């Protein structure tokens, strides 16, 4: 990427279109929603939705009741102990979780093989509809590699251009970047993207200089400034890619169904290079459809929103999704981190339909490259989901929307529950080992009662639990066999079966590590620690080995202590816990092994963990690869100060994109004030680089006076 060449002054400085404000009131969780004449049930809701939910949820409850009865039979029938009651209650809570996933997967399997998963008049093939409404594609970014992000956006732009419907879409790069070097690199990449595509009237860039409320605030600010000009907005993540045909079909569905507020696609994970990313990619591609088809089948018009790869009716979002702060201080109070669930719930509360269309392909994302990266992201998601405890009482929410939040909370709370369940089992065994049993009790009996845990019943409970837990994977494999094209894309029936075995074994070893990570996350949040906001790595899973030792050594020690305790109590208990113990004890080499790109490549060469999107790559993903391969590093310096000094056109464009200068009475930016003083006392660029902090550097580059002063410095 060479120095910035601007076509003319008009195009150079038009980074944003004319503003078209749209009111987005902050919602009151305690007041009734504004229905604006809409009914409580969207017209797009399936007529038999009550029967669907009764089948899925009712079956899960019956299955849980049966499992609880079987578990009760395992315990000693002669008496009731506190530990026994605790273990039974924990089993019911945890089994209900996997039972719902099981019954939902059965529904998903039936919907998948019956070629469902669409609705709203959407078709996967055939002529593309013509669009009459305006759509905005929104790409929020936060300290992401700019050239990588722009490659994905360019692929979407080019794919849309091929549909002939590009004129119905505008693209907005919404930056919340705080690193000044990345910020200026974003501007370089944005200007180059405009020049390469000729999209001066379709591609826009805006950086927020006060990034309050994170992504929700970023999108909300766009709605309030530009939302009035667009009927629909497509939300992306920095790693999102969507084909032009998919976007056109989604936009047309919104035009046909004016009561729909949001359509969520099923993003397919692609581009995995490390073994961990490839495991996530394979699991999402093979198991994901069975799960997604199931929840789409019984959620109906009360679907959920995952924050990206979805199209939203701008008016519905502005009318209903203004996010208030929840009472209290972080981590439970303040801005809601997992805002997407809440936004969907609020729109549904206002009478808008929220739908998922898992059968519509052409929607892609990437996976974090290592367990360490997932842990960083999960910590933020955990805090956001636990905040939903304060959102659950919101007046007027649909009960399915509340269920979405409960499931989201449970996704993290179940980890400490599993840990307590394991420890309770050890304590029960320890109690039986040391406590003297009462053979007759207070009642006179002819024969003594021999307290015991029934091993036959325990075996049945274990087998039944494993069937319920693993059945969705078996159903997914059967569905894959019935789809010849996808089966071939996964390497064929035998290699796909081998991949499922590999994923199940390695995933089973990783599960106890993830359990402890999430447990520590929940504990950290409960003790008042905020998660912060960290940029996410996407293309490299390499973690220094000593960092892995420092992070996961405690898990190894815990596994050794847990194993020793289990062995002392009972060798049979130790062998029952072996799968959990192996994952914990070998957590360090396991994390290092799965974070390796070379190991991931070896599995690919062996034909394992393949997905159709890499064996027969879709056109839009080919465009991304080609753009990334052909992209050359910029000749400009990486440092923002030196880059602006090296290219006059870039400096002019940068200053044109700055916000209005501060007026008397406006809040004072302390970093900017201090930075300008340091700048005035400096004579060379090197001197300024040494003096300014990162925040001061960003603040100085956020004002025309600061940039002009930088340009006047000597080397």
Automatic annotation (TrEMBL):
The keyword Protein biosynthesis does not apply. It is found in: Cell inner membrane; Cell membrane. Keywords: Cell inner membrane, Cell membrane, Glycosyltransferase, Membrane, Transferase, Transmembrane, Transmembrane helix. It holds the Pfam family Glyco_trans_2_3. Belongs to the glycosyltransferase 2 family. OpgH subfamily. NCBIfam families: PRK05454.1-3 (NF003956), PRK05454.2-1 (NF003958), PRK05454.2-5 (NF003962). The chain crosses the membrane at residues 50-69, 81-100, 405-430, 460-482, 494-517, 573-595. This is Glucans biosynthesis glucosyltransferase H. Involved in the biosynthesis of osmoregulated periplasmic glucans (OPGs). Its EC number is 2.4.1.-. Its main location: membrane. One of its GO terms (molecular function) is hexosyltransferase activity. It comes from Acetobacter ascendens. GO terms for cellular component: plasma membrane. It is an enzyme of class 2 (transferase). GO terms for biological process: glucan biosynthetic process. Residues 234-439 form the Glycosyltransferase 2-like domain. It is a multi-pass membrane protein. Pathway: Glycan metabolism; osmoregulated periplasmic glucan (OPG) biosynthesis.
């Amino acid at each position: 990427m060479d120095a910035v060449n601007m076509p003319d002054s008009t195009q150079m400085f038009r980074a944003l279109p004319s503003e078209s404000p749209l009111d987005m009131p902050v919602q009151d969780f305690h007041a009734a929603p504004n229905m604006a004449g809409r009914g409580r049930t969207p017209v797009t809701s399936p007529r038999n939705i009550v029967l669907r939910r009764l089948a899925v949820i009712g079956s899960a409850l019956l299955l849980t009741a049966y499992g609880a009865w079987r578990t009760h039979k395992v315990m000693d029938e002669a008496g009731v102990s506190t530990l026994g009651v605790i273990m039974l209650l924990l089993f019911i809570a945890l089994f209900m979780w996997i039972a719902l996933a099981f019954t939902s997967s059965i529904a998903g399997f039936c919907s998948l093989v019956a070629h469902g998963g669409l609705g709203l008049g959407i078709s996967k093939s055939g002529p593309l509809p013509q669009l009459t409404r305006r759509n905005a594609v929104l790409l929020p970014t936060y300290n992401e590699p700019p050239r990588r992000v722009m490659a994905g956006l360019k692929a979407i732009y080019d794919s849309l251009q091929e549909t002939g419907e590009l004129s119905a879409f505008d693209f907005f790069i919404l930056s919340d970047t705080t690193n000044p070097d990345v910020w200026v690199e974003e501007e370089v990449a944005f200007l180059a993207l405009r020049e390469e595509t000729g999209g001066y009237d379709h591609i826009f860039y805006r950086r927020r200089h006060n990034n309050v409320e994170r992504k929700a605030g970023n999108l909300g600010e766009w709605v309030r400034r530009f939302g009035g000009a667009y009927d629909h907005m497509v939300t992306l993540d920095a790693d999102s890619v969507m084909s032009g045909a998919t976007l056109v079909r989604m936009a047309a569905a919104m035009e046909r169904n004016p009561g729909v507020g949001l359509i969520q696609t099923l993003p397919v994970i692609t581009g995995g290079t490390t073994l961990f990313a490839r495991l996530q990619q394979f699991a999402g591609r093979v198991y994901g459809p069975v799960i997604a088809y199931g929840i789409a089948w019984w959620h109906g018009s009360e679907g959920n929103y995952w924050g990206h790869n979805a199209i939203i009716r701008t008016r519905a979002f502005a009318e209903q999704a203004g996010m208030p702060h929840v009472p209290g201080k972080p981590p439970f109070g303040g801005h809601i981190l997992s805002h997407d669930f809440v936004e969907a719930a609020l729109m549904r509360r206002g009478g808008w339909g929220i739908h998922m269309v898992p059968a519509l392909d052409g929607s892609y994302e990437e996976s974090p490259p290592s367990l360490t990266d997932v842990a960083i992201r999960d910590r933020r998601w955990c805090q956001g989901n636990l905040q939903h405890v304060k959102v659950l009482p919101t007046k007027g929410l649909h009960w399915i929307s509340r269920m979405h939040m409960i499931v989201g909370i449970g996704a993290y709370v179940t980890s400490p529950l599993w840990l307590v369940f394991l420890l309770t089992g050890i304590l029960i065994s320890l109690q039986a080992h040391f406590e003297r049993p009462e053979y007759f009790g207070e009642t006179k009996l002819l024969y003594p009662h021999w307290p015991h845990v029934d091993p036959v019943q325990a075996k049945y409970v274990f087998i039944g639990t494993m069937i319920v837990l693993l059945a969705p994977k078996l159903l997914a494999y059967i569905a894959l066999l019935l789809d010849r094209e996808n089966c071939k894309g996964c390497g064929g029936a035998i290699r796909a079966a081998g991949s499922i075995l590999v994923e199940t074994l390695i995933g089973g070893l990783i599960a106890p590590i993830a359990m402890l990570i999430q447990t520590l996350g929940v504990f950290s949040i409960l003790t008042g620690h905020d998660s912060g906001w960290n940029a996410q790595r996407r293309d490299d899973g390499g973690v220094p080995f000593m960092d892995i030792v420092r992070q996961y050594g405690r898990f190894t020690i815990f596994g050794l202590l847990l194993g020793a305790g289990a062995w002392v109590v009972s060798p049979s208990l130790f062998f029952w816990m072996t799968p959990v113990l192996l994952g914990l004890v070998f957590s360090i080499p396991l994390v290092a092994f799965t974070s390796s790109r070379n190991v991931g490549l070896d599995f690919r060469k062996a034909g394992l963990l393949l997905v159709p999107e890499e064996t027969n790559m879709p056109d839009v993903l080919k465009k991304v690869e080609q753009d990334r391969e052909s992209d050359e590093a910029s000749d400009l310096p990486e440092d923002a100060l030196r880059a602006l000094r090296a290219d006059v056109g870039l400096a002019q464009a940068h200053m044109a994109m700055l916000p209005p200068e501060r007026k008397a009475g406006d809040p004072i930016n302390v970093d900017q004030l201090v930075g300008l003083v340091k700048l005035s006392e400096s004579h060379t660029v090197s001197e300024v680089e040494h003096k300014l902090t990162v925040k001061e550097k960003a603040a100085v580059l956020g004002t025309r006076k600061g940039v002009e002063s930088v340009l006047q410095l000597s080397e």
